[in-house]
Every structure is written in C-alpha cells, then in structure tokens.
Design goal:
Porin, 60s Ribosomal Protein L30, Chain: A, 2 domains, 9-stranded antiparallel beta sheet, 4-stranded mixed beta sheet, rod-shaped
C-alpha cells in the first residue's frame, strides 16, 4: 500500500513540472465528520458516526491526486442476530473538478468535484445471537473502491467548507462474520460527511490551484495572440460599420459635397501656386540638349528655390513636370524620382515600412529597413531617395493625405537624426489613400523608397 501511494505522489510531482511558471499553492488537507450505514446481507443497518481526513495535491484546476483515511464503526441486525464492526479505510483517489471541465473560464467560489479511488479496508467484526457472542473476524481485510461527489465553498483563499457523499464497495461478502450471509452479494457502505479544507500557503497574493480556472492556470499562448487579433479585428470592423452607416446617411448630399470639394481643390491649387519652397533639382550642364534618359558624364547637381507652380503634375504620377522625363504615364504606375516607369523587379530590393492602424510608430522591422536604406545612401553620396507614404481607405481623404505625409516624414526624420543623412537628399511625399484593394490592410499602411542617381 505504501508503495502505491509513493508511486502516485511521484507521478503527481512529475506532471506538475510543466506548470512551474504558475506559482500557485497545490497542497490541501481536510478534516471530516459524518454518518455511515452498512449495506450488507444482515439488515436493518444502524447509522453510526464516522470520522476521516485526507491530503490532496491539486495538479491543475481540473484534477488532483490524494490519499484519504476513514474510521467507520458499523452495526446491523436485530436482537435475534446482529453484528458490530470497526473498519479502517485507507485509499488513494483521483478528484475531478466538474465545473472546470465544463467551462475553463469559470470564476466562482464554488467547486463540484467527483472522486474515485481504490484501497484497503481493515475490519474487526463480532457476531451475536440473542445478544450473545457467537463468532468474530479479527484482522479482516478487503479491497475497497470508493466513488463519491463533493461540493465545496471557499470562505477565504485558504479555507473552504464542504459536504461529501460516498458509496464504498468491497470485494468481500463476509464482513458480518457469519457463514450464512457469505456468498450472497458483496458488502457496501454508504457515507456522508461534512468537512473543512485547509489550503496550505494560499493567500491573496499566492493563489491556490483549487481557487482558479483552467485558463488562468495555463493559458494557451499560441491562441492568445489570435484571440487578441480577433478582438482588434472585431473592434475595427465596428469602426468600419459605423463609418459606412455615416456614408450611407450622407449619400443624398454627395452631389453638393462633390461640388464643394472641387471648389476647395481649386482654391488649394491657387494657394500652392502662390507660395515657394526649396527643392533639390539636379541640373545637367546642357539641359536644353539633354532630353534622353542617358546619363551625362559631366552631370552636375545644385539646390535652388523654385515656386510651387513648378511642382505642377500634369499626368498625376506624383512627379512634378519640371523633372518628369516620362510624361503621361498611366495611373497607378510606379515611377522613380524622374518620373520614369519602374517595374516591380526594380523596387531597389527594399522592403516597405508598415504601420499600425492610424499610427506613425516605427516597429523593429521598420527600423531594420530604414537602416538598410541609410547604408545605401552612405555608400553613394550622389543617391537621392523619395519616401512615399500611404494610408488605407478608412477615414476621409484629407486626413489620410496628412497621415501618409506624417508617416513619410517620420521615416525621413529617422534617416536624418539617427543616420545623419543630409535632409536635402531626402524627399517625403504623402500619397494619401491606397484605393486597391479596398481594405484596411496593414499592407496599405506603408512607406516605399524610390532612389535616383541623377
């Protein structure tokens, strides 16, 4: 028996090592008192007082292993024929928390546990006829299999009260110490007790494993990010739905809004043409004769101040006409600093810098990409870079235009402040909303890099 208990305790210790990161208390003990009735061949049975105690190691909020002991005095029969017996039961058991099995996220002070075990019952029985002693069984032994249910309520983190019912079967049919009752049916004991459970080293700062649910005890770290992402997606979807409802409500006014926007764009162009800004313009030696894309070996560069009207973009490719060497490029065609079409294979081999929704923060991947861009610029001082910022379609056009420019400026400032790149070699350009695909994708919230050596 001792060997069986030792094996169970060693198995409990081995299994619990997987949850070492969860610093919870696990040991508890109970004191019990109640009543029992003998269920054998000799009837009727007399209710007798029982006593017991147990020790348990709770491996997880769902199950635990323990050992229990009970003192069970028995009495049955009438005056003509009766028996008295003193039994001692000791057995290991497994306990299962039915509430945590049904719901791993449950939070309650109640616990409903099922128990099953197996052990030994030692008994000393005396048999009487007409109140006269007839026979006795000393040092009787039987295998017992207890099955029970327990309900508990946690008064404090360390103390719980409860009630337990058990039905204990035996492989013997001779507990009455009378041959005439042997071989009919096995003997059983019904028992009910109330108990106090003390949970060792349990307090408000160090929880006991019996007091928490399965999710808190051992969260699925692979699923948590997916749950967080799903929650974020659900939140964003609510924002999208709200905006869609607002757009639907404004549809009757779209004609008026479109006319107003056209007037505002005209006013904005007039204001832009009235101002000046400093831009970097490479100057060929003979600009009037150099109309091809061939590099001029005697190429020179300079910086000059030009009016905003010199930044008119007739074909809408994002390149001002004064440096657009390939005008009339189709819409949504990627071009370099000089307006020349570039294929997807000529994106300089640099990854995009991506942003979270409505944010301009730079994550670790973004910083690695910016560092690679800085290395390219340091390798060749003649290289310029244009940083183009984009936004997804959520939100109005003016806001996203500003957001895309702030993202481009964020990348530009990182190149200037951290890698000491000359600001005159960097152009930041906010392109606004990316219309295709029409989704609030992270791929649409980005900055791209376009280099030029002319």
């Amino acid at each position: 028996m001792g060997r069986i208990i030792l094996i169970i305790l060693l198995a409990s210790f081995s299994i619990s090592t997987y949850s070492q990161r969860v610093q919870n208390s696990k040991w508890s003990a109970t004191l019990e008192v109640g009543a029992n009735q003998f269920d054998g061949d000799m009837t009727p049975s007399v209710t007798k007082t029982s006593f017991g105690l147990s020790g348990e190691y709770t491996i997880s909020p769902t199950w635990g292993l323990g050992v229990e002991y009970y003192y069970l005095p028995l009495q049955a029969g009438k005056t003509a024929e009766s028996m008295t017996s003193t039994m001692h039961h000791i057995n290991p058991y497994i306990s299962l928390n039915m509430l945590n099995l049904l719901s791993p996220d449950i939070n309650t002070k109640w616990g409903i546990w099922a128990t099953v075990g197996g052990g030994l019952g030692l008994y000393h029985t005396k048999h009487y006829k007409n109140n006269l002693f007839v026979n006795e069984t000393k040092n009787g032994m039987a295998i017992t299999v207890p099955v029970g249910a327990l309900i508990e309520y946690n008064l404090t983190p360390s103390l719980a009260i409860g009630a337990k019912v058990q039905y204990r079967s035996h492989n013997q049919d001779s507990i009455e110490a009378a041959e005439q009752y042997s071989g009919v049916t096995n003997d059983f004991i019904s028992m009910g007790t109330v108990l106090l459970r003390w949970k060792f080293n349990a307090n408000n700062s160090k929880k006991h494993t019996r007091n928490i649910n399965t999710t808190t005890f051992c969260p699925d770290e692979a699923i948590l990010p997916a749950r967080q992402a799903q929650n974020k997606a659900d939140s964003l979807q609510k924002v999208v739905n709200k905006l869609q409802n607002e757009i639907d409500a404004l549809k009757p006014q779209l004609g008026k809004i479109e006319a107003l926007e056209n007037k505002m764009n005209e006013v904005q162009k007039i204001a832009e043409n009235a101002g000046t800004r400093t831009v970097y313009i490479p100057q060929p030696e003979d600009q009037s004769n150099n109309t091809t894309n061939t590099k001029n070996p005697s190429h020179k560069t300079d910086f000059e101040t030009v009016g905003r009207n010199s930044n008119i973009d007739s074909d809408g490719d994002g390149v001002p006409d004064h440096r657009d060497k390939e005008p009339q490029t189709p819409a949504n065609t990627p071009v370099d600093f000089w307006g020349r079409t570039i294929s997807s294979s000529k994106t300089n081999g640099f990854a995009s810098v991506y942003f979270d929704f409505d944010r301009t923060d730079l994550d670790a991947d973004a910083l690695k990409t910016i560092e690679a861009v800085a290395e390219k610029l340091n390798e060749n001082p003649e290289v310029m870079v244009e940083v183009r910022g984009y936004a997804d379609y959520v939100g109005n056009e003016n806001y996203n235009k500003d957001l895309s420019l702030r993202r481009a400026d964020k990348v530009k400032n990182e190149l200037i402040n951290k890698f000491n790149i000359n600001p005159l070699r960097i152009i930041s350009n906010g392109k606004g909303i990316v219309l295709e695909p029409k989704s609030a994708y992270r791929l649409n919230r980005r900055c791209n890099f376009f280099f030029s050596e002319e």
